[in-house]
Design brief:
Helix content: over 70%
Length: 122
């Protein structure tokens, strides 16, 4: 079931989200200022491609992660999370879209504070 949901997710738009996060990671890597967020962008890209059967956990709750997450939240995190929440609400209206809506909620939470998180297999 997880494989089927991941394939449907990928075909119906997950590839767009994952590719945009990969592009963001490359742009972060090119700039010196964006280097701290590069690994988080690549992690989110992998999660955006295949979210079913995975979960996000805290990995490093240190002071550096906290400061980077605060800066990220102010500059980009809130509108990325809002985007995912709006998609989740639209998908939750249909019964078929509920599993996809839940994945967008997980992506919204990850988009708010991506530094210091890890994606684990369930």
């Amino acid at each position: 079931m997880r494989l089927l949901l991941n394939i449907l997710w990928f075909v119906l738009g997950g590839w767009i989200s994952g590719t945009l996060w990969l592009l963001a990671g490359v742009i972060f890597a090119i700039t010196i200022i964006g280097l701290p967020w590069t690994p988080a962008a690549f992690r989110i890209a992998g999660f955006s491609y295949w979210p079913f059967g995975r979960m996000v956990v805290d990995r490093d709750p240190g002071a550096t992660s906290f400061l980077l997450n605060i800066l990220w939240l102010v500059l980009a995190g809130w509108w990325l999370a809002l985007h995912h929440i709006l998609l989740a609400v639209a998908l939750a209206v249909t019964i078929i879209g509920i599993p996809f809506a839940w994945q967008h909620v997980k992506l919204a939470m990850l988009s708010l504070t991506p530094v210091g998180k890890a994606v684990m297999e369930v």
